[in-house]
Amino acid sequence: MTSRALVLFSGGQDSTVALAWALERFDAVETVGFDYGQRHRVELECRTGIRAALPSLSPLYAQRLGADHRVDLAALGAISETALTRDTEIAFAETGLPTTFVPGRNLIFLTFAAALAYRRGAKHIVLGVCETDYSGYPDCRDDTIKAMQVALGLGLDRRLVLHTPLMWRDKAQTFALARALGGEALLDLVVEQSHSCYLGDRSTRHPWGYGCGGCPACELRAKGYAAYLIAPDDSGPSHDS
User: Fold this and answer.
1) What is the rounded distance in angstroms from the CA atom of residue 188 to the CA atom of residue 162?
2) What span, in angstroms and rounded, lies between the C-alpha atoms of 88 and 109?
3) Are the beta carbons of 193 and 185 closer than 8 angstroms?
4) Which among 125, 132, 135, 235 has most CB atoms closer than 10 A?
5) Per-residue pLDDT for the chain (241 aa), expressed as one digit of tens each?
6) Residues forming a β-bridge with 124
7) DSSP H or E run through 7
8) Helix 142-156 vs helix 105-120: crossing angle, to nearest 10
9) Given this model, what pLDDT does residue 152 score?
10) Which domains are delineated in the chain?
């Protein structure tokens, strides 16, 4: 029986590595991206280039990479007064969470992804969330994802498996995993074409890729790449969820 997976693919570092991880494991892989009016919507443009390049990296990728889907979630951006959906300062709010936190974002993404997976006959949903060195987003936590898996399975009356291969990896290990999966070619693709910068800046090329260099996403990526250069073979846990 063909194993089918749907990957939540934003065009960022984590989701690009998660997509490669899925292509190594499942027979047929489709992708879905969400347009919610994010400030860094340039990531949506990066998705196209990454998907176009992946088949040239491996015959397996070329064979397994299927359709891409893009979902308009403008309503989410309209109700979200955050630094990712408005031109406001990136800082920590009184709640202790960063102002880049979009309440309910991953919960909504997973609900739409599950509905799409149901229609496309995909049992597996893959996403690149991480609890090891993240920005404090509660909807990236392992407990949240496990709870969503239960809720979606009950609500659809169909077993879905949510895979989070990066959950216990830091950014350095994610860079290392890219190289372990697809060699220097995949690592170069992640560095050159994936996008993480919250401000959507692709005017400046750093050793770790493009970005403003000062926002939390750029700082985390820069720190991770520097650590990767010190231990390039440490790709993290041997057993992926």
Assistant:
1) 27
2) 23
3) no
4) 125
5) 789 999 999 999 999 999 999 999 999 999 999 987 776 678 889 999 999 999 999 999 999 999 999 998 888 766 666 545 546 665 555 565 555 556 778 899 999 999 999 999 999 999 999 988 666 788 889 999 999 999 999 999 999 999 999 999 999 999 999 999 999 999 999 999 999 998 889 999 999 999 999 988 899 999 999 999 999 999 998 756 5
6) 5, 161
7) strand 4-8
8) 40
9) 98
10) 4-230 (3.40.50.620)
Which token pair is 99?
């102002």
165's tokens: 């291969």
Cα gap 198→42, rounded to integer Å: 10
Please tell me the distance from the alpha carbon of residue 209 to that of residue 223, in angstroms, as a whole number.
12
Contact 112, 75 (CB under 8 A): no
Q: What's the full length of the chain, in residues?
A: 241
Rounded to whole angstroms, how far apart are CA atoms 15 and 11?
6
Beta-carbon-side half-sphere exposure of residue 187 (alpha carbons within 13 Å): 21
Contact 210, 49 (CB under 8 A): no
Contact (CB, 8 A) for 8 and 126? yes
Question: 38-61: per-residue pLDDT in tens?
Answer: 766 788 899 999 999 999 999 999
- Tokens 């990712």, located at residue: 84
The pLDDT, as a whole number, for residue 58 is 97
Q: Which helix (H) or strand (E) holds 193?
A: helix 171-193
CA angle 193, 204, 226 (to 5 degrees): 75
Among 21, 14, 13, which Cα is nearest to 140's? 14
Q: What are phi and psi of 196, to 5 degrees?
A: -125, -25
